[in-house]
Amino acid sequence: MLSQEHIQLIYRLKRDLSRERRIVVTTHQGPDGDAMGSSLALYLFLKKRGHDVHLIVPNDYPEFLHWMPSNADVVNFMRQRPFAEELVEKAEFVFHMDYNVLGRSADMTRFLYKCKATRILIDHHPDIDMPSRYIFSDTQVSSTCELLFCMMKRWDYSLIDRDIATCLYTGVMTDTGSFCHRSASAQTFLVAAELMRFGINREEIYEKVYDNYSENRARLMGFCLNEKMEVLPQYRTALISLNLEEQQRYGFVIGDTEGFVNLPLSIKGIRFSAFFLEKEDKTKMSFRSRGNFSVNDFSRTHYGGGGHINAAGGDSKIPMPELIRQFKEIITMYEEKLNEEG
Question: Could you read off the pLDDT of 36-92 as tens digits, one per residue?
Fold first, then answer.
């Protein structure tokens, strides 16, 4: 449910956007289903209200999200930089979707920082670090898409259509692990049911997201589980790592390792899973947990990252072999906590 403060903010924002405005919608680097779902849904919604809207993403995102409504309109900052910079410079309003730390916008960060536009933040992650005139944040909702749908109902319910509902459902579905994560509340299921009333095809959405991978990706998954997974039973922890050579061997493309970090959690007794993906200039880390072990706190403490209690991430410029060695040392500090019940 929206707080009274949020409801009042919606009415204020609605007044500010009562006439045509130049608007830029942004999201975080490496956008996932919730980032793209919320950003595209808002883009479509604002277009229907008559605004001059552009959606800019910092970089590439998985191919399995490219089917979404109006994906062809997305501006990729990494590939269309001069055009994207011009849009940011001219914007009167900038929406920050599914992220609350400006640095998560990668190379867009310094341009967004200099931008004089009015900022609107819509997000569900803890620890906000982004000055904004309008802040819509709720860490209790499953996803930014769930929060955005509740906002749209107050803003102008009549504008929500099948395409917008499809985008929103995609974000809710992916950020809840198909409604299996603890973040999926009773309200989440009510939101999903309401979105279905707009005529979305939930079976098709699921297939396009989860049953749309390449043969290479299937073989890469097998390689990770058979050759690259390390289990540390004393710490109820497992980790998987992929270096650049291994990625090249399996024809890696962005999105191929989506969900791999969750695989070790299917092992009985494992509470903490870590995935290390080597990049040209850094190593990207993903963390998942079960119960009350906070990977958000773990990531923030040791890697300057963050996220949610059971799903977080970070990155480091330390060479991956050394990074993994350090991780194995750090995890010894958490033996007691990882072996607690709950």
Answer: 999 999 999 999 999 999 999 999 999 999 999 999 999 999 999 999 999 999 999
- The rounded distance, in Å, linking the Cα atoms of 120 and 53 is 14
Fold of 4-210: inorganic pyrophosphatase (n-terminal core) (3.90.1640)
Q: What global pTM score does this model have? A: 0.93
Q: At what angle do helices 186-196 and 162-175 cross, to 10 degrees?
A: 150
Task: Please tell me whether residue 255 adopts helix, strand or coil conformation.
Answer: coil
Taking alpha carbons only, the member of 32, 38, 102 closest to residue 61 is: 32
SS3 assignment, position 75: strand
* Number of C-beta neighbours around residue 218 at 10 A: 12
| Chain centroid to CA 96 | 12
Closest CA to 46 of 12, 95, 3, 100: 95
Instruction: Provide the token pair at 216.
Output: 């290479």
For 177-195, letters b (16+ CB in 10 Å) and e give beeebebbeeebeebbeeb
Q: Which CATH number fits domain 216-338: 3.10.310.30, 3.40.50.2300, 3.30.420.10, 3.40.50.920?
A: 3.10.310.30
Half-sphere exposure of 249 (CA within 13 A, CB side): 10
Quote the DSSP letter at residue 224: I
Hey, where are the domains in the chain? 4-210, 216-338
Note the pLDDT tens digit of each residue in 235-279.
999 999 999 999 999 999 999 999 999 999 999 999 999 999 999
- Reported as a single tens digit per residue, the pLDDT across 125-180 is 998 989 899 999 999 999 999 999 999 999 999 999 999 999 999 999 999 999 99
Q: Rounded CA gap, 290 and 265, in Å?
A: 8
Q: Which amino acid is at 94?
A: V
Which tokens go with 7? 């409801």
